[in-house]
Amino acid sequence: MTCPxxxxxxxxxxxxxxxxxxxxxxxxxxxxxxxxxLGYWVVxxxxxxxxxxxxxQTYASRNATDPFTPVSAETAAVFRAGGYAMQRVLLNAxxxxxxxxxxxVAAAFTPQRVAQLAPRIxxxxxxxxxxxxxxxxxxxxxxQALTYALPAEVIFLLIGMDADDVPAIxxxxxxxxxxxxxxxxxxxxxxxxxxxxxxxxxxxxxxxKRVDExxxxxxxxxxxxxxxxDAVLSxxxxxxxxxxxxxxxxxxxxxxxxxAIVQLLRHPARWQALAADPTxxxxxxxxxxxxxxxxxxxxxxTTVDVTLGGQHIAAGSNILALIGAANHDPAHxxxxxxxxxxxxxxxxxxxxxxxxxxxxxxxLARLEAQxxxxxxxxxxxxxxxxxxxTMEYLPNTSFRGxxxxxxxx
Length: 409
Ligand code: HEM
What we know:
- This protein is α+β, with helices and mostly antiparallel strands.
- It has 2 domains: 1-60 and 299-348, Uridine Diphospho-n-acetylenolpyruvylglucosamine Reductase, domain 2, CATH 3.30.43.20; 69-295 and 351-408, CATH 1.10.630.10.
- It has helices at residues 13-17, 19-29, 46-54, 73-81, 97-108, 111-133, 142-147, 150-159, 166-181, 186-212, 218-226, 235-248, 251-265, 268-276, 281-291, 323-326, 362-379; strands at 32-35, 40-43, 59-60, 139-141, 297-302, 306-308, 311-313, 318-322, 384-385, 406-408.
- A hairpin with a 4-residue loop joins strand 1 (32-35) and strand 2 (40-43).
- Helix 4 (73-81) packs parallel to helix 10 (186-212), helix 9 (166-181) packs across helix 10 and helix 13 packs parallel to helix 17 (362-379).
- The chain starts with 12 loop residues before the first helix and ends with a strand.
- It binds protoporphyrin IX containing FE.
- Residues 53, 61, 64, 90-91, 102, 155, 244-245, 248-249, 252-253, 256, 293-295, 298, 323, 351-353, 357, 359-361, 364-365 line the site of protoporphyrin IX containing FE.
C-alpha cells in the first residue's frame, strides 16, 4: 500500500542529512509500505530486513544496480559505443552465477592478502596525517585531507592499480553512485554514462595488462585462479569484479570513516576516551557501524508472492531494505540513537549485509577504520567538529557520507 503520510523521499536534503528521524516514524507507523515515487516496497524493521537478506532465493538481487531513472536510448548508445560490458557477478547477480563467482573471488581474498596490507595502510595513513598535523591553521576539511582518497589508495594497493588513477576513479565513482542510486535527469544520465564508460575502459585495460604481466596483487591472483578456464571465471567477469571493487571497495569506506569521525568529534568526550584508551577502538567501530553506517539501503526483487511485515507483496516486486533503519530499530537495539560502545549486541548491525551477499571487504574495512582512528586520535587528541557548517550529501538512496567536514584542534 502507498504511504501518503510519510511522503518518503530518499533524495530530499533533510532526509539525506538526517534519515534517522524518518526511520523512527517508519518503524512506529508503517514499517513496510509501497513508495509510488520509487516503485519499491520500503522495509525498515530489523527482523524484516534480516528475513529479506537471509533468503537469496525468494529475494533476488538482480535489481540491485538498476538505475531509478530508466536508461534512455541515448544513454544506451553511449554504453554501446564505449564497449561497456559490465556483467552480473556479485552485487546484482543470483544463482548460479553468484555462488560460483563469489566462491572464487572470496578464495582469492585471503586473510593473508588483507594482513599483508596492514603495514602499508599504516604507512599510508601516517603519510597522509603528517601534513595535517603540520598545518599552521589548526583546521582542516578531513574529507578532502584524509577520508576521500585514502580508501581508494588502499583498494589500489590490493588490486595492484597505479595510484595515479585515484583522482579519476574517485570522480568516476560519484557518477556511478548518482547514475545507479540517484535520480539524474535524462541529460545528466548521458554525461554520467560517459564517465562510467571511461571508468570501465580503465578497468578493462588494467585487467588486460595483468593478463600479460601478472604481479603480486589481487587481480593477478584472480587471473591465476582462473587458469584460462572460463568455467571458473571469464576475463569479462574478472573485469566486472575489478570494476565493482573500484566502487564497493572505497566509496563505502570513505563514507564510513567520515561518518565515524563526525559522530566522535561532535561529542569530543567520545574522541578523548579513545585517545586515552585506544584499545576501545574496535568496539567503538562496531558501534559506529551500527549508529551511522555508510550503506543505507540495498535492493532486492521478490521471486514469489511473500508476506513481509504483514503486507502481501506479489512476485516480481522491488524491495528497498533500509539497512540504516534496521540498525536503529528499537525492537532490536535498546535506545538505538545512543552511542554506547559497550552495548553487547552492537555486532548485530546489518551494515555489512547478511547472508549470501555479505560484504567481502568487511575485514579490510574494519582494519582501515582501526588504523585511521588510532593514528588520528593520537595525532589530534583535542579535535572537534568546527561549528556553523552545513554538511552536504550526494543525493542517492544508498551511499551516505558528508562530502566535506571541517574539524579543529
Ligand atoms: C565500511 C565499509 C563498507 C560497508 C558499510 C560495506 C557494506 C556492504 C553491504 C551492506 C553489502 C551487502 C550488499 C547486499 O546485500 O546486497 C556489501 C557487499 C559487498 N562489499 Fe562491502 N562494504 C564496505 C567495504 C567494502 C570493501 C572495503 C570492499 C572491498 C575490498 C567491499 C566489497 C564488497 C563486495 C564485493 C560486495 C558484494 C558481495 C556479494 O554480492 O556477494 N566492501 N558491502
